Amino acid sequence: MGNVIENAMNKHEPAMTHNIPAQNGQNMPENAPAHTTLIGLDQGELGEALSHIGVKDKQVRMRVNQLWNGLYARGLTQFDDLHTISKDLREKLAKAYTIERPQIVTEQLSNDGTRKWLLRFKSDIPGKPGPEAEMVYIPEETRGTLCISSQVGCTLNCRFCHTGTMPLVRNLSADEIVGQVMLARDRLGDWPLIEADNKEGLPDSKRMITRLVLMGMGEPLYNFDHIKKASAILCDDAGINLSHRRITLSTAGVVPMMERAGAEIGCMLAVSLHATNDKLRDELVPINRKYPLEQLMQACRDYPGLSNARRITFEYVMLDGINDSLNDAKALVQLLKGIPAKINLIPFNPWPDSPYQCSDWAQIERFADIINDAGYASPIRRPRGRDIMAACGQLKSQSERISNRERKALLGE
Fold first, then answer.
1. 355-375 pLDDT, tens per residue?
2. Is a pLDDT exceeding 70 seen at residue 197?
């Protein structure tokens, strides 16, 4: 099986994977009429939505709690199953609103148990399919990590990242971010009294999703408000109840927003570093030209709540002959001096026409030894999902940005 993955990695050919048919009504018509979604609303907004369909003021708070429990604690997918409210109110909700998840376009299962979904989100242009982004689930023996997207496309153009080869189409809204997590829980059987349709590769755990990482498509700090709102919903203890310390936000280095992420979201931070000097990082991570390493490292030192118990994770992709010398390892130790940190070494995951090769495994281990000897944890991330292009840096969709002129023409303006 390992040879299958290796061949897929080197030749960009599909390995022995299979698609999983989408169920539970997830494959809906591309251009189905849209209702206003209740997913992604905070409790105040949910109360306003209920008032709008005639719920009396004195009942609003109770109905909000019932809806919140149904949506985020029980994972209901249709109003008819919300038996704690009257049939009349269920009918009013169904007529005015929706609690549909994003649409599954494809669902793939890797040889190693990794799952990848291509998701289609709502379209704001009649007759045109909505934009698409990818989401990945990585199971381990007793835990599971869900990697979600924050944008469709990206503006950062990191040279080693497949997403960076596509333009930014748009930000994902809070309901689309929360909806990814809810859809994954639907498919993995991660709600009470619901089981997965396909349990292959799932962990031996009460919860299938024990960690959430914003490391999919896009730069989360360029979509800050929606990420903040979605995180508050996902962490609410009356619903999905994820711990803030179980959410990791990965940034390429949007320095002005890093302090706000720590203070207002309270999540763990990961920084896509990948180089130890400005000249190379300008090439690999072009945002470095705007926020160079000196500013980035200071923002890391100032990150709210930083401590040995809340370390920053620095991500470092291993590129053969580019950033993987032993001198690079020593420079990395010096760069991070004084910052409570963990360094994830990521073997480069190739994609079609990618300009780099992965470092030799023995060289990665020598690199890691230098960092470990300096007192930093430096795990080598085991590649997962390469055979279905689900590994770190491999995500991409075919969505294209529509110009304002095209948008007006399609809307008949």
1. 899 999 999 999 999 999 999
2. yes
DSSP state of 167: -
Q: Choosing from 134, 176, 219, 315, which is the catalytic residue?
A: 134
What are the tokens at 280?
């190379």
Write down the CATH superfamily of domain 19-26+101-396: Aldolase class I (3.20.20.70)
Q: Do domains 19-26+101-396 and 40-98 have the same CATH topology?
A: no
pLDDT digits (tens, 9 = 90+) for 88-135: 999 999 999 999 999 999 999 999 999 999 999 998 777 788 999 999
Identify the CA nearest to 364 among candidates 340, 386, 348: 348
Query: What whole-number distance in Å separates Cα of residue 220 and Cα of residue 249?
Result: 7
Model pTM score: 0.88
Q: Is 392 a catalytic residue?
A: yes
Per residue in 255-278, pLDDT (tens digit) is 999 999 999 999 999 999 999 999
Contact 136, 108 (CB under 8 A): no
195 catalytic? Reply is no
Domain boundaries, the chain: 19-26+101-396, 40-98
CATH 3.20.20.60 for domain 40-98, yes or no, is no
